[in-house]
Amino acid sequence: MKVGVVTFPGSLDDRDAARAVRAGGSEAIALWHDDADLHGVDAVILPGGFSYGDYLRCGAISRFAPVMGSIIEKANGGMPVLGICNGFQILCESHLLPGALTQNQGLHFLCTPQKIKVENISTPWTSNFTEGLEIVIPLKNGEGSFQCDDETLAMLEGESRVIARYVGVNPNGSRNLIAGISNARGNVVGLMPHPEHAIDPLTGPSADGLPFFTSILNAMVGK
Amino acid sequence: MALDTVAIAAQTPDQEQPFAALGLKPDEYQRIREILGRRPSSSELAMYSVMWSEHCSYKSSKVHLKQFGEKAPHSDALLVGIGENAGVVDVGQGYAVTFKIESHNHPSFVEPYQGAATGVGGIVRDILTMGARPIAVMDPLRFGPADAPDTRRVLPGIVAGIGGYGNCLGLPNIGGEIVFDETYAGNPLVNALCVGVMRHDQIKLAKASGAGNLVVLFGAQTGGDGIGGVSVLASETFGSTGPAKRPSVQVGDPFTEKVLIECSLEIFAEDLVVGIQDLGGAGLSCATSELASGGSGGMRVELDTVPLRDPSLSPEEILMSESQERMCAIVEPGKIARFLEICKKWDVTVNVIGEVTDGDRLIITWHGETIVDVPPRTVAHEGPVYNRPLAKPEYVDRVNAQVLDLPMPQSAHEVKAAIIKLISSPNMADKSWVTSQYDKYVQGNTIQSQPEDSGMIRIDESTHLGVAISTDANASWSYLNPYEGAKLALAEAARNIATAGAKPLAVTNCLNFGSPEDPGVMWQFAETVRGLADGCLEMGLPVTGGNVSFYNQTGDVAILPTPVIGVLGVIQDVRSRTPMSFTDAGLELYLIGETTNDLAGSEWAYMHNQRGGQSPIADLQREIRLIELLLEGQSIFAAAHDLSQGGLAVSIAEMVLHNNIGATISLDQEIGIVLLSETPGRVVVAISPDHAGELISLARKYDLAITKLGTTGGTSLTVNDAVIPLDELRTAYTQTIPKLFG
Amino acid sequence: MAKIVVEVMLKPEILDPQGKAVAAALPRLGFTFATSVRQGKRFEIEVVGDPTTEQLAEVSRAAETLLANPVIETFVVKVEK
After folding, report:
1. Residue A55: its chain C contacts at CB < 8 A?
2. Distance between CA atoms of B69 and B544, rounded to whole angstroms?
3. Percent of chain B, pLDDT > 70?
């Protein structure tokens, strides 16, 4: 299976996402922001970083990249897309996911091992988890506070589209402790913490993030 | 202002020039006239003044720094030594590693966020310039008293600036230091270290050779940032000049730098450059003269082809501009098309601004008129050298003679109170409020970061080869005895590498001092360099490069002499590294090394406002034996942690808190001394009881004292009869810094 | 009700990476009108009643010490209905 990892100018965790894809058993394909061709990938990851410096709003400029046109089209057709951190922000700016990520309540960048609870295992990115499992993966962002209006929040909760929730503390002021959500169909997932930095206890706080990357292989093979 | 050309300069020898305002002394100005055989044009004057500043020319420190070459130990590992942008060390398997520390002290006082941010940007470009991919950064920081109002202004800004820039570059921040002392009030020290990795055949040098090769400027456009900043800042102290003379601040654009890094690495991978230099202090003046000087000497630059952000800049200002995120490369004509193509791919501004020429003159033109015509070596490498007067300051003998009068804990209650007091002091308290603002995970190769003894990065995923780095300084000891202080800082940094299981390999440094025009400061500096050079020779560790920062003082009061020493080591398999703390109960804790009464310069003495006494004398032979023991015994250590500031009390507290596993230790000698003394050359290790015999025979083999302290486990730190629940210990340790700055 | 507005901009000679990134993005989306973009901050301050001269002077002092960093930024204080 081929999983594309997009590099925007300013992407930082693209090589890490590719490493995690390989660790999960799939082939990682590098996609370039300026190239609308998705090179036949079966799924796409939008990695973390500060695309275009995140100077205007996080993800605001990246959503107009040529590659995003193709990704939005395919995502609407059901292709699995995972946006991590800056990728989550790009998905929100692209309106593939509702809501927005705003500045952390603590007002500064926060890098910490974070406990989250996986609440929805019906997406192609979470199927290898057991429901309700608590895992520890790195959180690292300056603008990770998930915000949306009450109606959207009710919809996300009502449709079980909250994929993962922070446990214990609310590290950034996200509504309802939301760490990740999906679109209505479940193929597009946005996640603020970084599972790609938790595939080996040697370099991360745990290997708890690996099932995100084995899930996608299963989802694709099972199709 | 009319354009001042070389021709006009030749015709108007008597025209007065503002050399003094540019920081040049009358005899220096006279020497420029002798070199050129005429008065310099205003552009030439700008170049010489900025390149002959203390910051760029090392004119006060050079006569001392040459000891690093003269006393250099033999080392097969050194691939590129002092003099280039950064030294390069062979770490095996065809990999070369480059690392360096630089200061950005004064700019960070003026504008903490941007000063610290551009400090990170500058050191990262130095590493990139060697041909390496930057893989990690570290930041040793020093501030005035933690509760001083200005510290509350400066510290959060500096930390946010380091994080804002480094995080956006995708570089893990793996360590550093934070120290508070009143002499740093108004003189915060912001030292930035970067480490990079490359293959041996990818090493790049700053030289412009091959007539006809093109001079290419790429990266950000040139604006009025920090014009004259280097010269003015490094030549005069703040108090005397006041805010009016503060130069305009340099603003960093980390996104541009990130793109510049990726663009440059792609250019390097295709072997498209002959030589390369980044633009930092002194901007184009420095890059063109150093490239030309490093090659055969001839270069011609058309300054009006430099892309400008501010079109009103004069040629002198363009030459002195310190706009960030710029690089200058020498490219063969046959390779320029591909070079431009890669820049276009990354949307990086690029312009050919000149070419390498035969001959030995650097000629710069402006709209066809020659405004600079100089021998580049006289600008870049043959600046003035001063053997400044030095004299042992009066204070040294006086403070050395002082006898400390410190309360020493005896009873269980006093022991507990002392430990709590120490670990809740700003210097010893948990710094994660700071380090959690830095990304430590990015790139996916971070094996160890703060608060471990050293930062460790994997450089090969398949062979598990890695490097470890530690930066250390003990300014209190350097104040009492700068010669020993330098050696002790070196020993500590090397020890911090070895506790993790890495073998120390090479040294870099950042020497932060007051004014070199004060003979007492100059003596401190000379003693420090002598100590470091002697220490490196004895320990067999070459100095690969470094940085000197003078004029860190307010009025007559200089900072404590603060030599920050960085040691880099190599570890063959990062999976085998030894962490600072244990994850199991039932392990035995041993102290390796002898404890004597070394309270002078200690944290305990500092907390009681006593700065006198005599610093320990470094026993580097014993340090070498300790390092050998740590490396040979690595497989039996479940944990190993260096003892330094705060002594055993702080180290054992850090160990039990790290994984929330307690310990019970019993100390039968004089408990206050054992807990609080900072005798160098000591390490606490945790081993499984089965390995006790092996450890004891290792200690005998390396002739080192060894004491069993106790065992791990439980939910408290118990020292004889003093029982400190971990929760209480944690609260004391973690609440200080957030309370002050959160 | 009137409010006091403080607009903070980087000084013209100081690099503005944010504005630069926006200026570069506009033409990619087909907006070719801009020769330069600079990004700033706007603070809206409400007071009871219409702002007085004294209040404006006080806001200026607050802008100088807190809202703006005079080392790199300039600001203007004005009243908007």
Report:
1. 17-18, 21-22, 39
2. 9
3. 97
As its CATH architecture, domain A2-221 has: 3-Layer(aba) Sandwich (3.40)
Residue of chain C with shortest Cα separation from A56: C18
The string of pLDDT tens digits covering residues A124-177 is 999 999 999 999 999 999 999 999 999 999 999 999 999 999 999 999 999 999
Q: Does A52 touch chain C (CB under 8 A)?
A: yes
Is the confidence at residue A223, as pLDDT, over 70?
A: no
CATH topology of domain B410-423+578-742: Phosphoribosyl-aminoimidazole Synthetase; Chain A, domain 2 (3.90.650)
Nearest-by-CA chain C residue for A54: C18
Under the banding of pLDDT at 50, 70 and 90, the label for residue A60 is confident
Element (H, E) at B356: strand B350-356
Q: CA B8 → CA B11, B14, B40, B302, B315, distances in Å?
A: 5, 11, 10, 18, 15
Q: Chain A: nearest CA to B726, how far in angstroms?
A: 20
Domain ranges for chain A: 2-221
What is the DSSP-derived secondary structure letter of residue B577? P
Which residues lie below 8 Å from residue A77, measured CB to CB, with a gap of 6+?
A: none
Residue B411 has pLDDT above 60, yes or no: yes
Q: Which of A62, A109, A137, A141 to mutate to test the interface with B (most CBs of B within 10 A)?
A: A109
Indicate yes or no: CB of B220 within 8 angstroms of CB of C15: yes
Token pair 């070369």: residue? B96
> d(Cα B336, Cα A36) in Å, to the nearest integer?
28
In chain B, how long is the greatest CA-to-CA distance?
87
Total beta-carbon pairs less than 8 A apart between chain A and chain C: 21
DSSP H stretches of helix in B226-303: 229-235, 238-241, 254-269, 283-294
pLDDT at A46 over 50: yes
Interchain CB contacts (distance < 8 Å): B and C: 39
Which residues in chain B (190-229) have CB-CB distances under 8 A to chain C?
220, 223-225
Residue A85 catalytic?
yes
Contact B111 C21 (CB under 8 A): no
Nearest CA to B29 out of B45, B14, B43, B42 is that of B45
DSSP-derived pairing of the beta strands A43-46 and A2-7: parallel
Is B636 touching A (CB cutoff 8 A)? no
Q: Residue B696 — φ and ψ, nearest 5°?
A: -65, -40
> Has residue B234 got a pLDDT over 60?
no
Nearest-by-Cβ selection for A138 from B163, B441, B445: B441
Quickly count: other Cβ atoms within 10 Å of residue B586's Cβ: 11
For position B232, what pLDDT does the model report? 39
pTM: 0.93
A8 and chain B in contact, CB less than 8 A: no
CB contact under 8 A, B255 and A194: no
- Residue C70: domain span: 3-80
CATH code for the domain of C74: 3.30.1280.10
Backbone angles phi, psi at B542, to 5 degrees: -75, 145
Question: Is the Cβ–Cβ distance between B290 and B206 less than 8 Å?
Answer: yes
| Average pLDDT for C52-81 | 90
* Tens digits of residue pLDDT in B177-193: 999 999 999 999 999 99
Picking from A110, A196, A197, the nearest residue to B436 by CB comes out as: A110
Taking the Cβ of residue C16 and every Cβ of chain B, the question of whether any pair is shorter than 8 Å is answered with yes
> Is residue A5's pLDDT more than 70?
yes
Buried b (16+ CB within 10 A) or exposed e, A89-101: bbbbbbebbbbbb
**Which residues are C8's β-sheet partners?**
C41, C75
Q: What residues does each domain of chain B span?
A: 410-423+578-742
A203-207, B150-154, B371-375: least confident range: B150-154
In chain C, how many domains are there? 1
**Interface confidence (ipTM) of the complex:** 0.96
Q: Which residue has the tokens 């034996």?
A: B625
